[in-house]
UniProtKB/TrEMBL annotation:
<comment type="similarity">
    <text>Belongs to the methyl-accepting chemotaxis (MCP) protein family.</text>
</comment>
<feature type="domain" description="T-SNARE coiled-coil homology">
    <location>
        <begin position="13"/>
        <end position="61"/>
    </location>
</feature>
<dbReference type="GO" id="GO:0006935">
    <property type="term" value="P:chemotaxis"/>
</dbReference>
<keyword id="KW-0418">Kinase</keyword>
<keyword id="KW-0145">Chemotaxis</keyword>
<keyword id="KW-0808">Transferase</keyword>
<keyword id="KW-1003">Cell membrane</keyword>
<keyword id="KW-0812">Transmembrane</keyword>
<keyword id="KW-0997">Cell inner membrane</keyword>
<keyword id="KW-0472">Membrane</keyword>
<dbReference type="GO" id="GO:0016301">
    <property type="term" value="F:kinase activity"/>
</dbReference>
<dbReference type="GO" id="GO:0005886">
    <property type="term" value="C:plasma membrane"/>
</dbReference>
<dbReference type="InterPro" id="IPR000727">
    <property type="entry name" value="T_SNARE_dom"/>
</dbReference>
<protein>
    <submittedName>
        <fullName>Histidine kinase, HAMP region: chemotaxis sensory transducer</fullName>
    </submittedName>
</protein>
<keyword id="KW-1133">Transmembrane helix</keyword>
Length: 98
């Protein structure tokens, strides 16, 4: 009876030690997961900043494109007007030829 009790106590101690080791392993795994989560959160934040920068650059490029298109239209209009003035000047100059 005492032998059985002693073996039972020893088995309980071993199981408690194994449980403690398991809890230590679980605790370490949770710390590792927390560290990985922090790394993922940091990387996600960095990617968010990069995406924001890209969005700003695309917006600026679109605005520059619109400005360029408007300037091209104005240049075309000015060229046409200048052509008309040039033709008008040529017509007037032809009247004064000797």
């Amino acid at each position: 009876m005492i032998g059985d009790s002693s073996r039972s106590s020893q088995l309980t101690i071993e199981q408690a030690n194994q449980a403690g080791q398991s809890l230590t392993s679980i605790s370490q795994a949770l710390r590792n997961l927390n560290s990985l989560n922090a790394s993922i959160a940091s990387a996600t934040l960095q990617q968010t900043h990069v995406v924001d920068d890209i969005n700003q650059n695309v917006t600026q490029a679109a605005q520059l494109s619109q400005s360029t298109a408007l300037a091209a239209e104005q240049s075309t209009s000015a060229s046409l007007h200048l052509r008309g003035l040039s033709e008008e000047l040529n017509t007037l100059l032809k009247q004064f030829r000797v």
